Prior knowledge:
Number of helices of chain A: 8
Largest sheet of chain A: 5 strands, parallel
Shape of chain A: globular
Mean pLDDT of chain A: 84
CATH superfamily of chain A: HUPs
Order of helices and strands of chain A: EHEHEHHEHHEHH
CATH topology of chain A: Rossmann fold
Oligomer: homodimer
Distance between the termini of chain A: 44 Å
Helix content of chain A: 25-40%
Largest interface: A-B, 43 and 43 residues
CATH architecture of chain A: 3-Layer(aba) Sandwich
Number of domains of chain A: 1
Strand content of chain A: 5-15%
Strand order of the largest sheet of chain A: 3-2-1-4-5
Structural class of chain A: alpha/beta
Low-confidence stretches of chain A: 1-7, 237-241
Amino acid sequence: MDVTTDRQREAILLLSGGLDSATVLAIALAEGFALHTLSFRYGQRHARELHAARLIAKRPGVLSHRVAEVDLGAIGGSALTTPTPVPKGRTPNDMAATIPVTYVPARNTIFLSYALALAEVLGVWDIFIGVNALDYSGYPDCRPEYIAAFERLANLATRAGVEGDHGFRIHTPLLQLTKGDIVRRGLALGVDYSITHSCYDPSDEGLACGTCDACQLRLKGFAEVGVPDPIPYQGAGPYSP
Amino acid sequence: MDVTTDRQREAILLLSGGLDSATVLAIALAEGFALHTLSFRYGQRHARELHAARLIAKRPGVLSHRVAEVDLGAIGGSALTTPTPVPKGRTPNDMAATIPVTYVPARNTIFLSYALALAEVLGVWDIFIGVNALDYSGYPDCRPEYIAAFERLANLATRAGVEGDHGFRIHTPLLQLTKGDIVRRGLALGVDYSITHSCYDPSDEGLACGTCDACQLRLKGFAEVGVPDPIPYQGAGPYSP
Lengths: 241, 241
């Protein structure tokens, strides 16, 4: 649905601080949206992501940046929020075949619900999220049928969806891209990947491990494009320069 | 979908501390479920609800009670979380005709998302919520089509929904009941309404105002049944004894 107003179009962007959402930010800006970015503090062990999100959100065209506290830790159930070991050395095929312990129950549903609330409050109809169904880590809430179901829910759930003359739209520009496509697209749009953070299990100094699912997918992306990942790694990751 | 296991069936119950969710708790117990109750601290002015929820959750058959912090206050946009005046003296017809300022954007979507996360972590397939489409306050996320869309989303969003052999089910036993029906049902099931709290705008001592939408709907329920509401009110509400 096209939304035409006198002022520049605005959208909400879910910004994790990782490679994917930093790329989506650049894509949304290139499409002419001004952005309100939304990050979450959810008891994750990698609070370093939030620092990366703050840096990424300094780009011109970002109107506001919010960090919402989300009490996922109290609910538990994931290696990202509880002390279960993060799996290392899985191949992309392993990742696609099974949902890993790093899966956070209903995470994207909770995050999109907050984005929807913020969109309604700000009078904004567009929400960007960096989910990816191709080179992904086996999470069910990264699939196109899930996103379509959420968009449908959004338009039933809200005063804006019921009374408004527009509809909410969930934008997923990375959905069908490989990690290589994502990196290529981001580099073309001037994304500074040196300030992004993807690792599930960084060192105390914040260095990426190079072997968790997130690191391996990221390194695969840079390897496909044939450029080095600009962030430093602990030791030598499988694709690291 | 029937779920048969050796142990007693368990369910998540969203427990606000009000009349409706206290009644749903009794209905779910009567249906043979053991319950994990989930309440939210979301910057609401009526934190007194949380005290009521704790008291209600003491009933036998409740296995656990959790309070999750939800950062809705940072997002704003409702008289329940921000200092906008709560509307008073609206008739039930007024309430059905327009969505009031007490509407919290995407609230039930956020709450159900947390319930879904908890259900998945606990290995539970049933979620109870006290929404009511008949005598309600004009909220879009209390309608049957909204609940059906969330149930569909739940089964696409989660590892349990994708890999499991069951499906998530959202139970809404109050959906088509009048407030009178709800009170009648609750009284028959032994609900102690004296420990519930419904008012959007209580006095500093916690006394209900008697004139906000929540109070008026509650008092209408007791009036329909012909029994006095056991809680005290400031001054005389329109139906108060």
